[in-house]
């Protein structure tokens, strides 16, 4: 039986309100950790209205019974224990407090050389969900932050600014000091600046106001999480992506516990060469402060080595897995047009390579004019893409659906005959797995983390639009290829399991706790 | 007397270039000659030349008592002629000693026996003629692609006049019986089958340099002691392996050449043992029993079946598309376009579907090692595009309009 281990996880979103890949991955990971006896206190930022004056809500705490089977093989060299977690803890069962386990007694052994015994044990793993009042969201940017705040809170911009001004003097000062300390520390790499700010033990009130800009809110959130860290008992802090890195640093310093940071996407993935230096600085700070860095791919680990000069000994790669939501039942949606549909689905931004998709489309329709291309999603490059499509003579061949949500996303996947992910830089990229779950064959960029682990997909370099077109055409012309990819792909998807990843992450915790 | 029967396989496919959809109808330069030349020259340097030289020395040193056999695919012979004539010259020197037998196979190392008997026979006959012409003796022993045998192939080989056929000594075929005896395939009246002794063969071919193997490092003396411990009534031991075992799969620094250099001396220490060729064994011994081979058995992977070539949808689709073009291609050849027929035959080489294998997890590493493609799917796409282009060219031959000349 593994020893209990407690983690304070600074994550993003929680079902049923998950909007993107980051939230999905964080949630999947908590489920995976539950299989390996890790108690998770999951902290998520959440906006709430006037009525609630606390900064913290304990939304749910339950013990998650996880069935594991343990097989004891009696080989010639004595018993070996091989254990494997079961698959079925995705939906937590009703809490049964105080039941030690559902352990079945060991079967009495006969004296055969290779005898197998099985037993089931139930790990009582606790998952506590803490919602912390904050406006942070996974995909917020610095520009337009106030506008987004207005949408999130339902308050006017004036009201938001006034609330900050009306906040207790010492709270505002603490936020400003930490923000400055973070800025200086990310320039100098000196964490002592931050510690000096955290010196006082006094309880401050952070409720009822938000940071007037993104960086101030990041600092305010960090201070709030620091308060959480004073109250909670845990062995390690685990923070996901840059916005929670300062909070992770603060929590780790307050509790004198090791910090693990998780890199899902870095500033270079989001912005190419035109990085936001303050964001990059906070990433650098988190990477320096952490004892271990979990990367979602070797691709990302490599970026961290080259762009952030991270000590390679700190890097660990844990690929994302498929969550229950992704493993949808094949959706046999009525397709209303007979022509093959080739789909791009994602943010229409530099990172996702929509322009390469259009270039490939132009080459395909020259040979197969009946093929329809669909670009689903919105983003800063969308207007340019519509113009580009027209210039390439694709007007009759391409449809722009705009941003899709909810069931429309699944419906779109299910209507497609081919899914293309032409990303320029994709730390992981879960969307091909979602397409595959709906039996859609996939062409994907080699410049992605998911291509490291995925075998049943056609891979291209994003800039090689000729090869991309070649592969799209091959899928259309040679049906055996699509059949091969979807049939074997289904089996492959089933192997990308969060419980397997959870074990790796637990081992990382053990490295830093020891 | 127990004889060691070494048979070495030499084969090189004509690998395809990354032929894309946009090449279709544009050019018929299907084969990557730069890559093929590079590989053949590299293998010649690391394996063909040093190992054939070593075998020549062994034959000379042991005064004709050291013997072995080769089968060299027609596509390998062609590539040696093009890019490594010294390797071919060494093989001819070996043939001239009279101690080395050259076997027959299909000229293009194909799976034609599965789909197209006429093509199978045409390829066997053309290879037989070429072996006779190059090595001075008409082959009497047949070895099918990847050592695949079943009752039907054995009968066809018999009908083509062969006296012996080689096969895999698979457990599921033999049961309790030993591979060290001569058998007669069910359904045959004259031909004899000699089986591969896979354990002893793989000790050399696969396990030799494996440090995790309990017998590592394998010395000549230890291997000879295993051979010497065989029952006295075993007439032969079939040591069948890829020639690239020497210097390519097992690198020079593993000691594989030194192992072979000293093996005959160690074997001869017990006078009950010698070396022989397959046709000598077939002439010397009557079959001890019949052997029923209802399903094709190969020497590949743990399964010893055809799943490495025809195990998935892509492979089966490619195989079907290829052979369905056979009749039209032969018609085109009769109409004067033998160049198209030759290109098609180069596509029948089994390696092209082998590259499309997706048995990743158990045997996958081996497959990957031999594949020039980054994935089996890429292999399938290039192959199907080439076939598409070839089919268009073949179809055009039948049209009354003037025939377009090939572009390369």
Name the descriptors.
heterodimer; A: 514 residues; alpha/beta; Rossmann fold; nine-stranded mixed sheet; six-stranded parallel sheet; 18 helices; B: 408 residues; 7-stranded beta/alpha barrel; 2 domains; five-stranded parallel sheet; three-stranded parallel sheet; 10 strands; globular
Describe the structure.
The complex is a heterodimer of chains A (514) and B (408). With 514 residues, chain A is of the alpha/beta class. Among the domains of chain A are: 132-321 and 501-513, Rossmann fold (3-Layer(aba) Sandwich), CATH 3.40.50; 341-493, Glycogen Phosphorylase B (Rossmann fold). Chain A contains 18 helices and 15 strands. Chain A has helices spanning 21-34, 145-153, 157-166, 169-188, 192-197, 214-231, 245-255, 267-271, 277-289, 298-308, 354-367, 382-391, 407-415, 431-437, 450-453, 465-477, 479-493, 498-513; strands spanning 5-10, 38-46, 56-75, 78-85, 115-133, 236-240, 259-263, 292-295, 315-317, 341-345, 372-376, 398-402, 418-421, 442-445, 458-460. In chain A, the strands form two sheets. Chain A has a nine-stranded mixed sheet with strand order 4-3-5-2-1-6-7-8-9, sandwiched between helices. In chain A, strands 12-11-10-13-14-15 form a six-stranded parallel sheet, with helices on both faces. In chain A, helix 4 (169-188) crosses helix 9, helix 6 runs parallel beside helix 7 and helix 16 (465-477) packs across helix 17 (479-493). The longest helix of chain A has 20 residues, at 169-188. The model of chain A is unreliable at 64-121 (pLDDT under 50). By secondary structure, chain B is an alpha/beta fold. Chain B has two domains: 2-291, 7-stranded beta/alpha barrel (Alpha-Beta Barrel); 307-398. In chain B, 48% of the residues lie in helices and 11% in strands. Chain B is built from 18 helices and ten strands. Chain B has helices spanning 33-61, 74-83, 85-96, 112-115, 117-135, 151-159, 171-174, 198-205, 220-228, 256-268, 278-284, 307-310, 313-324, 326-334, 338-347, 351-354, 360-370, 376-398; strands at residues 2-10, 68-72, 100-102, 141-142, 164-168, 183-185, 192-196, 236-242, 273-275, 289-291. In chain B, strands 1, 2, 3, 8 and 9 form a five-stranded parallel sheet that branches. A three-stranded parallel sheet of chain B has the order 4-5-7, sandwiched between helices. In chain B, helix 1 (33-61) packs parallel to helix 10, helix 2 (74-83) crosses helix 3 (85-96) and helix 9 packs across helix 10. The mean pLDDT of chain B is 94. The A-B interface holds A 363, 367, 455, 458-459, 466-467, 469-471, 473-474, 477-481, 483-485, 487-488 and B 20-22, 312-314, 316-318, 358, 360, 374-375, 377-378, 380-381, 384-385, 388.
